[in-house]
Amino acid sequence: MEGFDAGQVAEYVVRVGADVVLNVILAALILVVGLFVAGLVGRNLRKALSKNERVDQTLASLFSNIARYGIIVVVIVAVLGRFGVETTSIVAALGAAVLAIGLALQGTLSNVAAGVMIVLFRPFKLGDFVEIAGVTGTVKEITLFFTELNSVDNKQLIVPNGQAWGNVITNFSAYPTRRADFTFSISYDDDIDKAQRVIREVFEADERVLKDPELFCEVSAHGGSSIDLTVRAWTRAEDLWPVHFHMLKAVKQAFDREGIEIPYPHQVEIQKRA
Q1: pLDDT per residue over 189-222, tens digit each?
Q2: Mechanosensitive ion channel MscS C-terminal domain: from which residue to which, for each copy (predicted)?
């Protein structure tokens, strides 16, 4: 065939073949080194985060996986670039895909973000008795998506982390001591000093009532039919409700022994004579 130069064709094939082989070798090298670096970074990051007491194991695993797969994506883009694939188009497509997924899962992602904040800042932990998002219970599990509570009547309560983090959190177990508040009413005919003495004796006899801060017992109101005495006693957090229920009974029994009246509404029926 006229114009056909076998030598030039052979030279072109050799040159192209050499470029292909070189790109394959470089791509394989980038892939192997990249995967090794991704695994190394992921393991070391997880190990470093696991040593931090403020970072949960679930969160350590999440961050290490994000770092690992992020590096793998960069490696894949670099490998494709060695074969002449337009990497800018790939990056743009990946960005569009991430944006679309983010918009579709924005509620779920907000829960994940809130879960990360909860795990990092620890407003509550497993076993704490809390009120979050309007529900109350003991924390049984904290995940990246939701917090599980066990209610006092043994119901399972699942609170999305977005609602938990976005509302007021009341942690009843955060501090070792708590204050128990009481209001006891006595008749206007009773001796206020005597009633205060009786109340103090009942509370001070119970070892679960702390001496510091000291017991508070003072007149708080002149009611329509009674004098109201407010009592504030400090206990260990776990003793709060046992002390509360015990004192309601113990003070009533002490008032009965001392002849102190607890006023209550009376009905008087008047019958007219025919």
Answers
A1: 999 999 999 999 999 999 999 999 999 999 999 9
A2: 181-262
